[in-house]
User: Fold this.
Amino acid sequence: MQELELLAPAGNWEALEAVAEAGADAVYCGDKRFNMRMLKPGMNFTPEELQDAAVYLHQQGKRLYVTVNNLYYDREISELRNYLSFIEQIGADGIIVQDVAVVALVQQMGLKVPLHASVQMGISNLSAVRFLEEHGFARAILSKNLSLAEIASINRECQLSLEFFAHGDLCISHTGQCYMSSYVSGASSNRGRCIKPCRWAYRLLGTAADPEEFSYHLAHHDQCIYPYLRELARAGVQSFKIEGRMRDAGYLATIISVYRRALDRIIEDPYYIPDAQGRQVLFNHRQRDYTTGNLLKRPGREAIGLDGSREPFFPTQSRPLLRVKAEDYQPQTAVESYQTQLRVKVGSLPQLQQLIGSGVKQVIIGMEKMRQEGPNWTEKQLKEAFALASQGDIGLYLETPRIITQEDLKPLEKKLQALAEFPWQGVIANEYGAFKLARGLGMAVQAGYGLNITNYETGSWLLNQGAELITASLETDRDSLMAMAKLGEKLEVMVHGPLCGMITDYCLAQAWSDDEEADCVIHCLKPDYGLMDDYEQLYRIRTDWQCRNHIYFPYDLALLARLPELAAAGIRRFRIDGQFYKPELLRDVIAIYQKAVDDIARGRWAEQDAFQKLLGLFPDGLTAIHL
Assistant:
């Protein structure tokens, strides 16, 4: 049996000592500035404590991994450089990384500390793992959304050490792709500030659920794969990670000791099955009930704590959401003259037809398919699309989905190979596996907003890896967006369109069907399918052809009033996602934004009537989110 590592969390010195004494082989922890667990001021380590932790663990033959696993804004990069030097100096055995700005800095500074790809990077397929191998990573912490078979498939063909979360908190959304907290409050889950909208009560509409009953429809049980440690070891997992840097020492010591005994037995006897006694101890110390997540099958209703009775606490509650108002428009007559351009995502040929003669010269076609929109982009339709685009002097771009698991990889690769025959201007990749695939096929590749690019350093690094354009993360704050404008023509910002806040493998419609185990009968096609909060705000749900549920913020993004400011900062490319709009609505939206872009080029700004018209086109509301 290969060496198996038990990796424990620690949020303070007491927890560090407790998990080390309980049998952890390695401990992961972070300081009070640059890591993901920032909600409790009294937790995390000072630099002096981190240095002491390295000495303490190394004296016992144990390892220290430091979490540098946040997304960073430009104002943090200078301090981050100094911090990375410090981590190398104290002899940390690895750093856990989400933002590739850290990779860029490590390479620039010539540091030797091993890189571990955080679960926040969403590494869920072999192509993404190989991307990491190319760039010097020592380990991949795999997405929690993978099945046992997918993990084994990845392991058979990769060289990296693989780590997997064995126990602890489990999000309903695919890791690294949940933006809902940011949209609702400006507090980003990908920056360790999640306010947990997934732990709010909602009414579920458009299914067999009682539409009047509030339940915790997104409140996932905790992960516990203790009974399947043997199977995970056989699948190639080398490091078994326990979640819980905000948990107390007593709780963690109990959990670690149970997993320690089981892993020791598996190392001695690869056929050992973790015993019922250990399961009972874990059960008695649970906070939420347990689930195996995606390990054996997709999560169903049994994986959700609908009544909320085992939630440790509810940190926040639903709230009224900010909407764009008429008075948000700031009248001004003259602005600086800048040449900017629009790029528009469409979902059908009729939409594309509306763009002919509109002034738009760049159009995106997405590979993700939503059941609510019906089949689209067959080979015949694509040929028609390219013929139309040629008439209108329009360049077409292909966009890959935000989620590509190992199961999705071969179909995606086959599809990309077939589509490479068309004269695309480029491929927009939203995760690192697709980035590597497209580049390997010789296609011009661009970095989509699914790659969570929040600073200049990350954007610059991706350009050096072959990206021709960078789309800023929708979670980038105003100041960092302005700093990223140094990328010039290489930077794109989304200014209008629907906001997908969560992507989950849990299909709420199927979970509430008469027979959850029966074949899918596409309950999700009902027009009012969604979650309603107690302010009557509807989070609509669309379902892709892999039956993943995409949960949307109630209001579409609209940054029309901010275009002069963005242009003045140096941003020259604006994106509109119109793939779900009726062709006539998309035509009207494009006309409004194209006029604004043309007016900026003329050095004038008189869009008040257009702004009012835009508000009228979306009676349900529009938002500027945290911008």
Summary: Residues 22 and 257 are 5 Å apart (CA to CA). Residues 249-268 form the longest helix (20 residues). The mean pLDDT is 95.
